[in-house]
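Researcher: Let's do a round of design. I'm pasting the structure tokens now; please hold your answer until I've finished.
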């Protein structure tokens, strides 16, 4: 018989739940069709990349929604801060020539 921990859970169950919370978080990106970009589908916990890939397949492409899956450790993702948005993106603001509003599209071009 297992002895319960102070929270009332048996020791084996408490050990299992501790191991689950120690698994790293993975970000999942799915490409729905060839030629499209991968888009963020969600996150999951898994002990390693192979298990994260299998779990992502089972969780995010159950109805054949994807042709490719990427899993990335969340700890490896670096993102800009929304609080620093103005200062971070300011250098691009003074380059209006990068926007296609200054260019004329020829009449024969239908898909640009």
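Researcher: That's everything. Go ahead.
Model: Designed sequence:
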């Amino acid at each position: 018989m297992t002895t319960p921990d102070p929270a009332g859970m048996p020791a084996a169950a408490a050990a299992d739940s501790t191991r689950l919370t120690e698994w790293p978080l993975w970000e999942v990106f799915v490409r729905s069709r060839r030629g499209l970009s991968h888009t963020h589908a969600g996150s999951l916990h898994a002990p390693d990349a192979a298990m994260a890939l299998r779990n992502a397949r089972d969780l995010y492409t159950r109805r054949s929604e994807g042709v490719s899956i990427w899993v990335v450790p969340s700890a490896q993702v670096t993102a800009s801060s929304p609080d620093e948005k103005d200062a971070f993106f300011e250098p691009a603001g003074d380059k209006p020539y990068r926007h296609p509003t200054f260019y004329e599209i020829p009449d024969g071009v239908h898909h640009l």
